């Protein structure tokens, strides 16, 4: 089941999008759930329920581009498609990782080409992300492949990712179990994503430009895991 949101204040445009979605999923035999919102702020409150969102640019309370920027602060993975007749926003769309633009009025044959891409991307995310409770900032979904390493200080975990650093309360042991294979401790403070290891020199591992220390007790196990990872084509 794919949960899809339509954020559109024009009732006719929203109904047209909904009918295109219903037609596509009936023809494909896949299942979806569709929710409509006429306000960006209302959508943002419940955005984590959805895998795909069709966002109008011209909205009464907050323009779609601003809403998308707020959305990306908490959700890197939701698939975003803008629906607009304002072509000048196309360049800004790449800044919020919009998958595509659909120009009004929506034409079904053009629509399904972009919808197929959205469904393919959305179907690939759920199995490759973790949901964490950020300290004082609510819930966030993080793509596992974007995590370079996790650092622990006291009871605070810092997820260092391609998109920034996010702090949560927890233990490195629980984090290790959550992230699974491909993540190995180099000492008691760091859990490293082996995909980002550039090189190892002595007791230093270079992770995407950063230097992390390898403890003597963990050196052998870390190097074995790294060699196995590289040998498996990881």
Automatic annotation (TrEMBL):
UniProt GO MF annotations: DNA binding; phosphorelay response regulator activity
Pfam families, A to Z: LytTR, Response_reg
Domain (Response regulatory): residue spans on this chain: 3-119
Residues annotated with 4-aspartylphosphate modification: 56
Alphabetically ordered keywords of this record: Phosphoprotein
Record-annotated HTH LytTR-type domain positions: 130-228
Keyword Phosphoprotein annotated: yes
InterPro entries registered for this protein in UniProt: CheY-like_superfamily (IPR011006), LytR-like (IPR046947), LytTR_DNA-bd_dom (IPR007492), Sig_transdc_resp-reg_receiver (IPR001789)
Role of this protein: May play the central regulatory role in sporulation. It may be an element of the effector pathway responsible for the activation of sporulation genes in response to nutritional stress. Spo0A may act in concert with spo0H (a sigma factor) to control the expression of some genes that are critical to the sporulation process.
UniProt protein name: Stage 0 sporulation protein A homolog
UniProt source species: Candidatus Coproplasma excrementigallinarum
Lineage: Bacteria, Bacillati, Bacillota, Clostridia, Eubacteriales
